[in-house]
Amino acid sequence: MTYSHSHLLGIEPLAPPDITAILDLADQYADLNRRDVKHSDALAGLTQINMFFENSTRTQASFELAGKRLGADVMSMAMQASSIKKGETLIDTALTLNAMHPDLLVVRHPHSGAVDLLSEKVNCAVLNAGDGRHEHPTQALLDALTIRRAKGRLHRLNIAICGDIAHSRVARSNIMLLGKMENRVRLIGPPTLMPSGIADFGVEVFEDMQEGLKDVDVVMMLRLQRERMDGGFIPSEREYYHRYGLDAEKLSHAKDDAIVMHPGPMNRGVEIDGELADDINRSVIQQQVEMGVAVRMAAMDLLARNLLARRQAQTGVMV
């Protein structure tokens, strides 16, 4: 199992074998998480610090649970009430963290590139839990694992990503990962919610849902990110749902066994019909949440192995 990186900052630096290594180990952790006893000692004796500069319920809970199941000492810092608010710079925060000697640092930040900057200043493994509009690598990996388990493979599939592409770091990470694994990716949404330079992404772009969903294997819906919008990107939520919200009629244009995904949190009746979201025959949204814990366990396990190996090489002492 090869994964040689010191951090997990994005999908962009990963090669297909890196992605497969994480998913293969995550498969094992998914099975472990379904047992009565769900604990491993892979991170025993190590310290994990979660720093969420943006609010997040499911991602933060998922990382906390993943660390605890691996045996780490887990601490979550309330960054909204932290010294950052008092004027401390990100570099000062990094120096403070170094003095605490963490082993794994999980960071979500509203500014693209902030997590990369932190990774250069701390002496531990850093995982990007989402930075601005840049990337959200563990979300793309958990989506990939969900697809692989549902479809039996993660290549040569037709996958539609629908909705607010422009503001979505989830879409960006998924486009990269699915492209690296030889899938055909379609983006569907209004022109106002498509990023500039979309032609360089190696994807097909559709404005019409029915046309874009024709014969796809996977339908991935995205949340309308109103907090990142500073203008009139859509006429109204009602009009948006009429044209781009996923319902049974629109889904009928996809393959009969197409699966429906959503990274959450969902706006029911805006991005997706509530009954469809709960349809256990089509929707894998709950499986995505389950696979999130397994993927984060795998990523932290692999990074910890590399961290301990580097420390041993530097000191010549077993750690």
Strand content: 5-15%
* Record field, number of beta strands: 9
- Read across the widest sheet, the strand sequence of neighbours is 7-6-5-8-9
Which range best describes the helical content: under 10%, 10-25%, 25-40%, 40-55%, 55-70% or over 70%? 25-40%
What does this entry look like structurally?
- Helices cover 39% and strands 14% of the residues.
- The protein has 11 helices and 9 strands.
- It has helices spanning 16-32, 58-69, 90-100, 114-121, 137-151, 169-180, 209-212, 237-244, 248-251, 274-277, 285-315; strands at 47-52, 73-77, 104-109, 125-131, 158-162, 184-188, 204-206, 218-221, 259-261.
- Helix 1 (16-32) crosses helix 5 and helix 2 (58-69) packs across helix 11.
- It is globular, with a radius of gyration of 20 Å.
- The model has no long low-confidence stretch (mean pLDDT 92).
Task: Give a brief outline of the structure.
This protein is α/β, with parallel strands linked by helices. The protein has helices at residues 16-32, 58-69, 90-100, 114-121, 137-151, 169-180, 209-212, 237-244, 248-251, 274-277, 285-315, and strands at residues 47-52, 73-77, 104-109, 125-131, 158-162, 184-188, 204-206, 218-221, 259-261.
